Amino acid sequence: MSELITDQIPAGDQENTVETTIIPEIVPGSENSAEDEILPTDEGTGPQPEAVDLDEGKTELEKLIARRTGFWQVKIEAQDAKWIKNACQGKFEFTGPNEAFMLMNCFLGFSSAVSRQESEKQTETIVVQASAIEACAFFINRFSASGVESAQRLFRIAMNMNNVMMELRSLDEQIEALRQMEKATAKLADAPDTTANTTAAPETEG
After folding, report:
1. Is the Cβ–Cβ distance between 54 and 38 less than 8 Å?
2. What is the pLDDT of residue 198?
3. Domain locations in the chain?
4. What is the maximum span of the chain, computed from C-alpha positions, in angstroms?
5. What is the spatial distance between Cα 14 and Cα 109, in angstroms, rounded to a whole number?
6. Are 110 and 83 in contact (CB under 8 A)?
7. pLDDT at 57
8. Measuring CA to CA, which residue among 128, 197, 205, 200 is closest to residue 168?
9. Which sign does the torsion angle of CA 55, 59, 60, 64 carry?
10. Fewer CB atoms inside 10 Å of the end CB: C or N, the chain?
């Protein structure tokens, strides 16, 4: 499923350094006068915070999982996105708590996407979280309707979501492969080192 995640991660705490300017004491009759006072200068505001790399410190597996569960851009017209949101309120049928949870994910995801689409005046694309996209695909495949108009709408939505679903499946395969590699690596690391414990057998006199 594809949603748009716009998490703001605050930059780390930075030390605030204050530069102080020493103003020499002015003695009447001395060479220093008021015109010679050394005043603080306003030259810049100090070092600017650097951009934060959200993937810094993450493993390749963590990066793939974050992408897999994040937001995705889907080419869906505004009227179709609204239809999906409205279908969650009566047209999509569910059975049991698991499917009920999926339906809530679908409704919340597409409700937020429609609101963003309207505020940004987008008419052909939306940004949705992956869980909402997968839930929508699940209910679309089970949806029962009649008439050419409903068939065209359902087919159009399914085809527009197909590319994202293929990407999600590809990421699932990559994530599973990395998990298997990590398990194999951990198993080798935990295995006892038999070569280090072997000692040469004492020589016997013939």
Report:
1. no
2. 55
3. 57-184
4. 108
5. 36
6. no
7. 75
8. 128
9. negative
10. C
Tokens of 199: 């000692």
Is residue 177 within 8 A of residue 64, CB to CB? The reply is no
Secondary element (H or E) of residue 89: none
Question: Using CA atoms, how far apart are residues 116 and 108, in angstroms rounded to an integer?
Answer: 12
Cα gap 161→74, rounded to integer Å: 6
> How many CB atoms are located within 10 Å of the residue 2 CB?
28
Using CA atoms, how far apart are residues 108 and 114, in angstroms rounded to an integer?
A: 10
pLDDT, tens only, 85-106: 999 999 999 999 999 999 999 9
Range 158-172 burial, b when 16+ CB lie within 10 A, else e: eebbeebbeebeebe
Which residue(s) pair with 73 in the sheet?
A: 127
Is pTM beyond 0.85? Reply is no
Which residues of the chain, if any, have pLDDT below 70?
1-56, 193-206
Q: What's residue 191's pLDDT?
A: 73
